Amino acid sequence: MKFRAKIIDVGCLNHFTRVVNTVSRLTKACVLCSGVVASGGVSMWCELSQGNFFDEFQLEGVSADANEIFLEVAPENLSRALKTAQNAKSVKIKLTKKSCPCLTLAAELPSLSSVSRVVTHDIPVDVIPRRLWHDFREPQMPDFDVSIYLPPLKTMKSVVDRMKNLSNYLVLEANLNGEMNLKIDTDLVSVTTHFKELGNPPWGDDGSQSSSPAHRDPDLMAEARVEIRKLQQFLTGQQVNPSRAMCNIVDRRILHLIFLHEDVSLQYFIPAVV
After folding, report:
1. DSSP string of 228-267?
2. How confident is residue 7, by pLDDT bands cut at 50, 70 and 90?
3. Among the listed residues 266, 265, 263, 259, the one whose alpha carbon sits nearest the alpha carbon of residue 244
4. Is-above-0.70 flag for pTM?
5. Deepest of 15, 23, 25, 165, by most Cβ within 10 A of its Cβ?
6. Apex CA 78: angle with CA 74 and CA 84, to 5°?
7. Strand segments (E) across the chain
């Protein structure tokens, strides 16, 4: 079982660091699945395109018929290690065996002399046994009632931050006419922020969902009541700068957020509360 990868391009290194920083702000532990990052396989799933990040990538899995490796790691530790590598000439990541299994990150730093400087971090990991791999597969997209593009994330974050001072819970509702509302309702105050003309992703055209909501009344709202803290955490933590951001609502059950970049996809599931 072997794994090693190398990043040379500074842009790729900075982008990889932003992805890791985003994950580290959302969870204390995650599982690396042969280049895929997941948190429990349920609440968050982040997938990276290996070819767009790593100049070299070598992997030998647990066996010939299971060419994968699943590692549990604290993303905060990986994030801290990458902070020392922001101006590095190259970064190598390798699975090693020290006193325990580790991801060894070696950053070659610029030097004024002919002698190179290398900073090495050993990040402890736990190897997930094969019998548990099924717990960390990409979750299936739920058959949603409404899917809608999100407004500018900075605008949405600003609204959510203000609402957090008034309530612990928020209702996000949307319809198939590109309309979305953020609402709070307490004994003391009721506040609603309206967004219009956001657009609805054409999921039904590419078969991404088994049952299209096209038969649904376009004006009918689907909603999910969620903890503001969880939504705020996701909006605050993301550093991926997605080219597309959308939200799927399974009415009164799940809020499914999707951020897409050309080489990164990030899914976040927030269960609704009664």
Report:
1. HHHHHHHHHH--S--SEEEEEEETTTEEEEEEE-SSEEEE
2. very high
3. 259
4. yes
5. 23
6. 150
7. 2-7, 30-33, 36-39, 44-48, 56-60, 70-73, 90-97, 101-109, 117-124, 126-127, 146-149, 169-174, 180-185, 190-195, 222-227, 244-250, 254-260, 264-271
